[in-house]
Amino acid sequence: MRFALSTNWNNVRLNDGAAIADEAIAMGFDALELGFRTMPEQLLGFKSRLDSIPVDSVHAYCPVPIGAPSGHPELHQLAHRDENERALARILLKQTLACASELGAKVVVTHAGYAELDGVFCNYGSDVLRRILKSGGKPDATSPRYAKVVAKARVRRQKRGMALLDVFRRELDNVIPDFEKAGITLALENLPSLEGFPNAEEAETLMNDLAGAPVKLWFDTGHARVRECHLWDDPTTEIANRFAADICGMHLNDVADFHDDHRQPGWGKVDFAALKPLAERDVLRVFEPHEPVTFEELKESLAHIRRIWE
Question: Domains of the chain, with CATH numbers?
Answer without folding.
Answer: 4-115+164-309 (3.20.20.150)
